[in-house]
Each structure stands twice: as C-alpha cells, then as structure tokens.
Design goal:
The complex is a heterotrimer. An eight-stranded mixed beta sheet of chain B has the order 3-2-8-9-10-11-1-12, sandwiched between helices. A four-stranded antiparallel beta sheet of chain B has the order 7-6-14-13, with no helix packed on it. Chain B has a two-stranded antiparallel sheet with strand order 4-5. Chain B is built from 13 helices and 16 strands. In chain B, helix 8 (248-254) packs across helix 11 and helix 9 crosses helix 11. By secondary structure, chain B is α+β, with helices and mostly antiparallel strands. By secondary structure, chain C is α/β, with parallel strands linked by helices. Chain C contains five helices and 16 strands. Chain C has helices at 80-86, 123-135, 158-166, 212-224, 266-273; strands at 11-20, 25-32, 46-51, 55-60, 71-76, 93-100, 113-119, 143-149, 171-176, 179-180, 186-187, 204-209, 232-235, 251-252, 255-256, 263-265. Chain C is globular. Classes of the chains: A alpha+beta, B alpha+beta, C alpha/beta. Chains in contact: A-C, B-C.
Chain lengths: 153, 386, 278
C-alpha cells in the first residue's frame, strides 16, 4: 500500500488533492496486471472501476458487425481510463483490451462514488479532474472527426 | 531611361500626325486612343485623324459616357477601360506547343507571337506609373516575363499630361499625376484655346531627344510655357477625389476580419471588371489544350482574376469561397500587400475600377470606411486560435 | 540554390519506376531525359509536374537530395493531372519545371534537437529533410519523427519508417485517427504525440508538414512547450499556376507561397494562420 501511495501521489491526476482525500483514494486503489489481449472491461458491463495506466497500452474498442472491432482510442502510460463509473447508469460503453501487457492502478469507482455522495468536497475535486480528462479526450476525438487527411472531391 | 532634358519645345497640332508617320516609317506599331464601342480604347492608329478628336469622357461610379465637344482637342479625356498592359502583357499568349510521339513529348517555343516595336501615343501619367509598377512585378524579381521585358524595352512612351481629369481620378493623392515626372520618352501637354492649338513637348530620354529632333519643333516662346503649366495646374484643381494612402497598409492588415467586409460583399457581384480594367493587375492562369488525338498540346496563358471562385482552389475546395473574402483579397493586395511585395502601392489612382464597377464600389471609400471604423484585433492568443 | 533552366518550359523526364504507396498515393521515380545527368535540389522545394496536354500540379520533391540522379515525387491522385500521372508506366514522360521555393533549414539547424512532424502525405516533403539529416546524423542532437495519418492503410514509406524506428538514434512515433483491432500503435491526432517527447525549448527546431489545420494545432502545441516561433517551420500550400511568382494565385497574405515559401517560419505566418479564407 505504501508503494501504491507513492506511485499515485506522483501522478498529476491527484496533484493538489488534500492529503486526507489522497489517503481515501489510495484506500480504493489496487495494482492490476493485464496480459496482452486481455480485456479490462466489456461494453455493457457494470462500470465499477477506473484505471490509471502505469505501463502498456489499452485499446478502447467498439465491435461492429461489418468491420469487426474498431479502435476508438488507445491509452498509454499516464493516461486515465474510464469515467462511466461517475455517470449513470454506470455501465461501460466500450470494450477495453490490453494491446500489450499492461500494468494499471485500478480504483474502486463504486466505493469512491459512495464517498463522494457523502462528502461533496471530495466529489467536486474528483469531478474537476475528470472534467479535464473528458475535455482532453473530447478535443482529441473532435480533431479526428475532422478527418483532415481525407480528400474531398 | 532616366536622362532628363529640361528643355521644352513647341510642337504644332500637325506634329502629332508627323509623330505617327515617322514612327510607322521606322517600322513601329503606333498604338493610341480611338473611339470604339462608346468608349475611348487603345488600338493601332495610322493617322492623327484616328484619335478621339473632339471627344470627352464623363465618369462617375458605375458610369462612363462619351460626350462630343466638337473641338480640335485630341487628348481631352482621362482614361478608358483599356490600359497599356493589353499590349505589353497580352490577355492571351501561347507559351509553348508540345507534341507527343509514343512515350515522348517535345516542347516547342519557336514562332511564338512576335514582339513588335510599339510607340504608345497618349500615355497618361498614371499609366506611366502603372507601367513602372508592373515592371517591378513582371521583370523585377528572380523570374522574369521575357516577352514583357522585351516589349517594354522596345516600347517608346509618348506621355500626354492630363488636361481633363475625370470624376473618379485620384492620381494626385497617389503621387502619380496629373503631370508625368519620369518614365517617358517624350511628354506632351496639349494646349487648346481660342488663339492656338499646340503641344508643349519635352524629352525624358536620349531616345526621346533623338526622336523629337526629327519632328518639326522650336523652343517655346512668350506665354506658351505658362499656358502649358496652366493646363496641368487646372487639372490638379479639378481632381475632385482625394485619398490619403498613409498607413492604409496597417489599417487593412489589422482589420482583416472586420465585419465591414460583409457590407461590401452585399454589393460586390465578383464580376472581375475592376481587375480587368486595372492597369496594374497582373494575375494570370494557364490553360492546357489539345487536339482530339491528345498528341498535340498547347499551353496558353491568359488574364485571370482573384474574383473567380476557382482562383484559390486547392484539392478539397476553394480557400476564398465567399465574395467577402475575394473582395477583401483584392483591396488588401492592391493597397497593402503590394507594398510589402514590391515596395510601392499597387494603385495609381486612375479611378477605372470605380467607373467600371457595375455596382459602383469605390476603392477609396471602402478603404476610408475601414480606416474610420478601424478596430484592430487582438493578436491571436498563444493558446487558442481565433 | 539551383536556378531552373527555363522556368516556364517543362523539361521531359522519364519514368524509371512507379510505386504504389497506398490506395491513392504513389511515388514516381524520374530520370532526366534531355542530356542532363541530375537534378539538384534542396529539401522542401517543389516542382511543377506536367502531364502532357492535361496540366500541371505543384508537387514537393520527396527523394534524397544526396542522390540527385533520380528525381522522386510522391503524389496523391485527387484530380485530372494527378490522376493522369498515377496511370504512368515505366518509360513514359513527365514534364518538370523547377526546383522552386524555399527550403527546410536543414544545415542551419545543426547542433539542435529536431522534431519532424508529418501528417498524411505531409511526410513526403519532409522525407528529403530526413535523408539530409541522416547523412550527417552526428551534427544534430536528438531527433524525433512524429507521423500521423488517417489509418494504418494510409501509412506512407512503411519500410523506411520501420527502418528508422529500429535505429537507436531516432525516436519515431506513429499515430492514426482510426484503426481496426490489430493495430498496436497509438490513436489520436499527431499533436498528441508531442507530449510524449522531452523538449528542450532552447535547442529545438521543429518542422511541420501536413493539412493546414493539423499544422496549425501542432504549432500551438509546440508553443505550449515554448519552442520559439522562429524555430518552427511549416510547409504551406496554395493554388499555383506558374510556380515562379508571376501569376498571383498562390498569395497567402503578402507572401507568395511559391517563392517566399512553401517553407515558412511560423512567426511569419502565425497571424494569417488564424484568419479565415486567406
């Protein structure tokens, strides 16, 4: 646990978090290891966790009948993965698959959610940080939507 | 070409025909003003009677009319829709022919259009300035339009100072008229009153001096020089339009996204008239054409205009698709970018673009409006994009 | 910088080899046909390529400036001229006018770290710069090549990219906008790769080439890392008819892309990049 605390506390995501909240977050954290090809979560499953990727790469995918699985996003070292635990109905919308062996810190979102309900200050701190993550992801997605490399006739 | 002679001479009215005949005898093609299609245009002249004797022009925004005055004045007009660029820089010109045989092709530039020795009779001071501006564009850079350069070097410029500026002229504001200071071989001022009809002439080059020597002339006497001076002085007073070009470059750059351009865009129909009549506009396009077999191809250069939709087309689309952006491009280029590109304004104040605009857009009014409503944008933030 | 022979007249070159890069992109390797032995050029320059009877297009030179006996161009088939050129066979002729334009300051950047950022076919005008740099690799600091394209199928110069990636003295990252499962690389626009390299802003020079919006956002990203505006270079593109500054088509603000560019320092065009319909 001490090791986890050190690792977590160095991550930009928790920067500025009050020590008691950091402790709380650490309390909900666990080290995980996924083998290459292993799924972290599936579309439709209950979303109870979010992940901070330490090493490796995770593809966020959506299965389509015509094309098979299409990679929507790929998250690498340092990235935050998963916010569905925050947003009702708390289900994953995509599949998450380890492209290579991946070490990640899994955080118990369900547990944190309960704590946020009780302590809104904690809730605000977490939501602030997730707003950032979402904005980042959204901007990146929008840029890709532009399809800048295509040629229009 | 810059040797100045300060001696002024008297040429009688008949000298004009002598000038034309002497030039033709030298093998030159004389181009001058003629009346055609309700306007004074430039075309080959063979005798002085081809000139627009007794004609005046009345010009307003979107209006050009010829009026008969029934006197002997040969150059009593301002400028028409033509400028001398149509001779130095022809509207269409073949660049090469290419013949394909099998996998190979061979390009041939022999026998392309001739380069006549022109004598330009009746060049206005603003037009002399326009030629100097086009010189910088077409023969002043790293790459030169050879044909333009040759035609230009051969052309003999007989300038005629303005005695009858038109309503849209603003040459005085742009420092290009109504009197020509240099850039000519011969400069004439036509004087016509109850007593006399003559031309005050001066040579601007050695070539001009040598030519003048062959035309009957004598030094100016009595009040002749004063009369000639008065013609120019009167013209200066009659120029109604003024435009202060100071800092217009900064104003146009800084107000590039000004909402006023939307207002102009409502009126502009992007007909390209302004670029066609402008004596300094130089944009061209190339056209590649073939016969039915595809083996014989030609490339032609022709005048183009930044007002056309496909002028700025790159794969994926046209960059300047709105009329607003095209009008803005033209005026910004003419009055602002030109200075950064070639060291002078692109505008000589001839007023043609105003006269010949079907909706009467006035370049000076537009520029002044933007200057008066100027609200320079913040510099784009480092982080964001406007 | 070499001056073209007769800048308005195309010179026939012979197609030595034509290589399909992707479904719509191909590379022409040309040899001079008229007695001249080579075609010297500097990285960043372009030629006007003439398809007999059809027309011309401005295409950046994409070959090795150290091997001027072969003239290489990578093109995308998007219109009449490029479509015609895409159908060429060995032995066919292409007209060439050039080389024109400003260059990537390869030599002036020696002693610095380089970041070379390419989007889509933008990798083609940067490739001569990469070759030049590799020729004198030890004159440069760290070199990163960041390449983004639409999908794995659109990756240009795959073999070379893999060879460059295998080198210990190059940091090569590739990202795509979208991929099917099986892709093991990054996803996202190329500017997102910038955050993954360490940038020493006082000794970095960046070279960008790709769709204009990509270059615009990438430059903003580099500025966040304090790379000076006079050390970020972009290659711009506009309609060209003559390529030699006489036809007026390629104007971008007061600059002529054909002679003041196509390579520009970011500082010079920064304010124009953020304006519309320039």
């Amino acid at each position: 646990m001490e090791n986890l605390e050190r690792i977590l506390s160095e991550h930009p995501f928790v920067k500025g978090l009050e020590p008691r909240y950091l402790e709380l977050v650490v309390g909900c954290a666990a080290n995980t290891l996924f083998k290459e090809g292993e799924y972290l979560f599936h579309e439709g499953e209950e979303a109870n966790n979010f992940y901070i990727i330490r090493h490796g790469k995770v593809a966020v995918e959506l299965y389509t009948p015509e094309r098979g699985a299409v990679i929507i996003d790929a998250l690498e070292e340092g990235d935050i993965l998963g916010w569905s635990w925050l947003i009702p109905p708390y289900h994953w919308h995509f599949d998450g698959r380890a492209i290579e062996q991946t070490r990640a810190i899994a955080l118990d979102g369900k547990c944190l959610r309960g704590k946020c309900e009780k302590d809104h200050d904690l809730g605000y701190e977490l939501l602030k940080r997730f707003a950032n993550v979402m904005e980042d992801r959204l901007e990146s997605t929008r840029m890709r939507l532009l399809d800048v490399y295509s040629v229009r006739a | 070409m810059k040797e100045q002679s300060t001696q002024k001479y008297f040429l009688d009215a008949a000298s004009i025909d002598a000038i034309i005949q002497t030039s033709m005898a030298d093998g030159c093609t004389v181009v001058g003003p003629v009346v055609r299609d309700g306007a004074i245009v430039y075309d080959t002249v063979k005798t002085a009677s081809d000139l627009p004797i007794g004609w005046r022009d009345e010009q307003k925004a979107k209006s050009y009319r010829l009026v008969r005055n029934d006197d002997k004045a040969m150059f009593a007009y301002a400028v028409g829709p033509h400028s001398w660029k149509r001779f130095l820089f022809p509207p269409t010109q073949r660049i090469f022919r290419s013949q394909r045989t099998g996998k190979k092709f061979e390009i041939n530039t022999n026998g392309e259009q001739s380069t006549p020795h022109y004598v330009f009779l009746g060049v206005r001071p603003c037009e002399v300035a326009a030629m100097a501006i086009q010189d910088r564009v077409l023969s002043g850079g790293a790459y030169i339009d050879d044909r333009y350069k040759t035609l230009r070097e051969r052309a003999f410029i007989i300038a005629v100072n303005c005695g009858h500026p038109a309503g849209m002229c603003f040459c005085a504001s742009m420092g290009t008229g109504p009197e020509v200071k240099n850039g000519f071989d011969i400069a004439l001022t036509e004087v016509l009153d109850e007593k006399a009809h003559f031309f005050a002439a001066e040579a601007g080059t050695v070539r001009g001096e040598q030519f003048l020597a062959r035309i009957p002339h004598r030094p100016l006497e009595n009040d002749e020089a004063e009369k000639a001076r008065q013609v120019v002085a009167q013209s200066r007073k009659r120029i109604a339009k003024s435009f202060d070009p100071a800092n217009i470059k900064e104003v146009l750059y800084e107000n590039f996204e000004h909402p006023y351009w939307d207002e102009v865009a409502k009126r502009c129909i992007s007909c390209a008239n302004c670029t066609l009549v402008c004596p300094t506009c130089f944009c061209t396009t190339v056209e590649d054409v073939t016969d039915l077999t595809g083996d014989n191809a030609e490339r032609w250069r022709r005048w183009d205009s930044c007002f056309t939709l496909d002028f700025s087309y790159i794969h994926g689309g046209t960059i300047r698709s709105s009329v607003r952006s095209r009008y803005r491009q033209w005026i910004t280029h003419k009055l602002a970018s030109w200075i950064d590109q070639f060291g002078t304004s692109g505008c000589v104040g001839c007023g043609r673009c105003i006269t010949w605009c079907p909706v009467g857009i006035d370049i000076t009014e537009e520029a002044l409006t933007v200057r008066n409503q100027s609200s320079p944008q913040r510099k784009p933030q480092e982080q964001g994009v406007a | 910088m070499t001056v073209a022979l007769n800048p308005m007249i195309p010179e026939p070159f012979r197609v030595q080899h034509i290589r399909r890069e992707t479904h719509d992109t191909f590379t022409l390797e040309l040899r001079p046909d008229n007695g001249r032995i080579d075609f010297p050029f500097a990285p960043g320059q372009f030629n006007m390529l003439y398809a007999h009877g059809i027309g011309e297009v401005p295409i950046s030179i994409s070959g090795d400036p150290g091997v001027p006996e072969t003239l290489t161009h990578t093109l995308r088939s998007v219109g009449a001229v490029t479509g015609s050129l895409s159908g060429l066979k060995k032995g066919d002729r292409v007209g060439v006018r050039g080389p024109f334009g400003s260059t990537w300051p390869a030599d002036a950047s020696m002693g610095n770290d380089l970041i070379i950022i390419a989007g889509g076919i933008g990798l083609a005008p940067l490739r001569p710069l990469i070759y030049r740099m590799l020729q004198e690799r030890d004159r440069y600091g760290r070199v990163a090549i960041l390449y983004g394209t639409r999908s794995p199928n659109d990756i240009l110069y795959r073999d070379e990219l893999e060879a460059w990636r295998a080198r210990f003295d190059l940091d090569v990252s590739i990202t795509v906008d979208q991929a099917l499962s099986g892709w093991r690389g990054s996803i996202g626009v190329v500017s997102t790769l910038i955050g993954r390299i360490h940038i020493e802003s006082t000794r970095t020079v960046a070279f960008l080439c790709g769709p204009e919006v990509m270059m615009r956002f990438t430059a903003v990203e580099l500025r966040k890392h304090d790379v000076p505006t006079d050390r970020i270079f972009l290659s711009m593109e506009r309609n060209m008819k003559c390529g030699i500054g006489l036809c007026g088509h390629c104007q971008y603000g007061p600059a002529f892309v054909c002679k003041d560019g196509p390579v520009f320092p970011y500082g010079r065009i920064q304010s124009w990049l953020s304006r519309r319909e320039v």
